[in-house]
Design a protein that fits this description.
Blueprint: E1 8-14, E2 27-35, E3 43-52, E4 55-61, H1 62-68, E5 74-76, E6 80-84, E7 86-91, H2 107-119, H3 124-140, E8 143-151, H4 157-167, E9 170-177, E10 182-183, E11 186-190, H5 199-213, H6 216-219, E12 227-231, H7 235-243, H8 248-254, E13 262-266, H9 272-281, E14 284-287, H10 289-294, H11 302-307, E15 311-314, H12 319-326, H13 334-341, H14 343-348, E16 366-370, H15 382-389, E17 395-400, E18 403-407, E19 410-411, H16 416-434
Parallel strand pairs: 2-5, 2-6, 7-8, 8-9, 12-13, 13-14, 14-15
Antiparallel strand pairs: 1-9, 1-12, 2-3, 3-4, 6-16, 10-11, 16-17, 17-18, 18-19
Helix pairs in contact: 3-4, 3-16, 8-9, 13-15
InterPro entries: Amidohydro-rel, Metal-dep_hydrolase_composite, Metal_Hydrolase, MTA/SAH_deaminase
Pfam families: Amidohydro_1 (PF01979)
Protein name: Amidohydrolase-related domain-containing protein
Length: about 450
């Protein structure tokens, strides 16, 4: 089977840590405003969460839980808003190491002249350093689970798993599977030789990694291998599908890639038949509007997809852009954005029974956002405060599997200074190996 792009990834969901440890301590988190995103979408003022081991044992008013659990250790979260841990449905951990190195070109130049060239010169140590940098950033901004969708063999998949394991984050980790080395059969968009994999390395390597990591980590790894794929990202995608008498979704359907276990990324260039077919399939979308806006690739028809009942998770942000292009300020309310960033993402990953909302029996994955600062006050609607006022820098506490990973806005499982310094060194080494060390400058002279 020929793939449209070299970007089909099979996934194994890794729930760290691989090391079997004692259950996290029992803790009662109190005095917060809690946005549960549960079935009733209730918001609890003066709320509390009782955590026992890896799971939520109780959620309710602080006074009531204090009465039920009088001997429990408490952690006061006054002035904070608690939300379910954010779930990123699209992440390239390797590219964090390349921050600021390929700004302002269109997609073909961005890929072929910079990004693929740099990534084609990665070592396994670079992949590990990039993963740690990405994970540290995600945790500090409230992301507790992410989908890595295109991890190449040369980056060292074991290192990625190790970074997930050590940090405590949840990671749905996808290795690249490819059988062609150019984009949509366009020879002008050739992949760097350092990234080209044969089918044995791609597919058999993926299965090998799945066999190694699936079922590990104290049985906190999801069974089964879903699929994620970049699709309908640029006009060239649609042109390619048309050249073989298909639309994006009819092609995916014809090769068995349009299922409830598929996460399709970007999905910008669709027609009405695509939306209808996608809706009927139960497939999911990872929406990344900032990425596509920066590369001028187009804008996903998110309101139309929502109306069709398609489940949409977030890779980046969503709220402001769609209000502007639809000329409808009600198009994507704050509550919808929170759903996409939490429970919708969980559904896309098949994890909605475990994460994505706050309720009894769910995994204890949540984030406390400090809204006491001058830039976040006053607020009346907590959902609005989180979506439109908070930036990620207000994240104060992050808990995953009942374990506190961020406290007082500081990483507890990673040495942030070491992560940054290692990333800086590795980044410069990648530039040098790629021969691009002297091209990483802006348009203005630097003395």
């Amino acid at each position: 089977m020929k793939l449209v792009k070299a970007e089909l990834s099979y996934l194994a969901c890794i729930f760290p840590s691989r090391i079997i440890v004692a259950n996290p301590p029992i803790m009662l988190y109190t005095n917060a405003t809690i946005i549960t995103v549960d079935d009733s979408r209730r918001i609890i003022k003066g709320g509390a969460i009782q955590v026992e081991g890896y799971r939520i044992a109780d959620v309710g008013k602080t006074a009531a839980l204090q009465e039920r659990y009088p001997d429990n250790k408490e952690y006061d979260l006054s002035g904070r808003i608690i939300i379910p841990g954010l779930i990123s449905t699209h992440m390239h951990t390797a590219q964090t190491l390349l921050r600021g190195t390929a700004d302002d070109p269109e997609l073909a130049s961005w890929l072929c002249e910079r990004t693929w060239v740099l990534q084609g010169n990665f070592t396994e140590a670079d992949g590990y350093a990039a993963a740690r940098l990405s994970i540290g950033e995600m945790l500090k901004s409230g992301t507790t689970c992410f989908l890595e969708s295109m991890f190449a063999d040369r980056y060292g998949f074991d290192g990625l798993c190790r970074a997930v394991e050590e940090s405590g984050i949840r990671g749905c980790l996808g290795k690249i599977v490819m059988d062609i080395a150019n984009y949509a059969k366009d020879n002008a968009w050739a992949m760097h030789p350092g990234l080209i994999e044969n089918r044995e390395t791609s597919l058999l390597g993926t299965l090998k990694m799945w066999e190694k990591w699936n079922g590990a980590a104290n049985d906190r790894i999801r069974k089964g291998i879903p699929v994620t794929m970049h699709c309908a990202e640029v006009k060239a995608d649609r042109d390619f599908f048309a050249s073989i008498s298909h639309t994006p979704m009819s092609f995916c359907d014809s090769v068995g890639l349009l299922t409830p276990a598929t996460v399709l990324v970007h999905m910008v260039h669709l027609d009405d038949s695509d939306i209808k077919r996608l809706s009927a399939s139960g497939g999911h979308i990872a929406h990344c509007p900032t990425s596509k806006a920066k590369l001028a690739s187009g804008i996903c028809q998110m309101p139309d997809l929502q109306r069709a009942g398609v489940n949409i998770g977030l890779g980046t942000d969503a709220a402001i852009m769609h209000k502007s292009i639809s000329h409808d300020p009600t198009a994507v309310p704050a509550e919808s954005v929170l759903e996409m960033a939490t429970i919708n993402g969980a559904k896309a990953l098949g994890l909605q029974d475990r994460i994505g909302s706050l309720g009894i029996g769910k995994k204890a994955d949540f984030v406390a956002i400090d809204v006491r600062g001058i830039h976040t006050q006053p607020w009346l609607n907590p959902a609005s405060a989180v979506v439109y006022t908070a930036t990620g820098r207000e994240v104060d506490v992050v808990v995953v599997d009942g374990k506190m990973l961020v406290k007082n806005a500081e990483l507890l499982t990673m040495n942030e200074t070491d992560v940054i310094e290692e990333a800086k060194v590795r980044s410069r080494q990648v530039f040098a190996r790629a021969g691009l060390e002297n091209k990483m400058t802006g348009r203005w002279p630097v003395e």
